[in-house]
Specification:
176 residues; alpha+beta; Lipocalin; 2 domains; ten-stranded antiparallel sheet; 47% strand; elongated
Length: 176
């Protein structure tokens, strides 16, 4: 016996709805959340780095705010806040070093892809950067590629912060 057209249409509609819902759930699961406090791990960076760089990242949907603090020895720390969106719209901000940055970011899979124009002393420096969470989300890896072929890998470890804003005891023990 043949099924009526309405029943076939209804089954196809349910199947397509399930596919769309599944794709939406899978996309939500693969979009990483970079929110948190991050401390640069100088020994794991390539090339190795020195000085203290801390990132405070807040991510809400496509809105991404990155607060950078740079402390080098006895110098006064430098500080900058950049506000981005991860939908490809160009944002203009000033870095901790005073340079102007024109940045667009796209979120694809489990990574963020940055396209950056740095305006420095009358020059424009082009950089591509990829941010990926590794090691179960406790490590942020930033791979930076400049137009001249130079590449850097910057590694940041997540800092556990208590409500009072200081490192938790478990984090201090791991740091020692």
């Amino acid at each position: 016996m043949r099924e009526p057209h309405n029943l076939i249409y209804f089954r196809v509609l349910i199947f397509i709805s399930i596919l769309i819902l599944s794709a939406t759930v899978l996309r939500a699961q693969t979009t990483p959340d970079f929110s948190g406090q991050w401390q640069q791990d100088n020994d794991r960076c390539q090339p190795k780095r020195n000085g203290g760089i801390t990132l405070h990242i807040e991510q809400h949907g496509p809105a991404l705010t990155v607060e950078t603090t740079i402390a080098h020895g006895s110098q006064n720390p430098r500080h900058a806040v950049q506000k981005y969106t991860t939908d490809g719209v160009v944002s203009i901000s000033t870095g901790a070093d005073g340079d102007e940055f024109h940045t667009s970011i796209l979120s694809k899979g489990s990574s963020l892809f940055f396209s950056i124009e740095e305006h420095e002393d009358g020059r424009i420096l082009l950089t591509k950067e990829t941010w990926t969470l590794i090691e179960n989300g406790v490590t942020l890896m930033r791979v930076r590629e400049r137009a001249n072929g130079e590449q850097q890998t910057l590694i940041y470890r997540r800092i556990a912060v208590t409500a009072a804003g200081s490192k938790s005891e478990s984090q201090e023990v791991r740091d020692k």
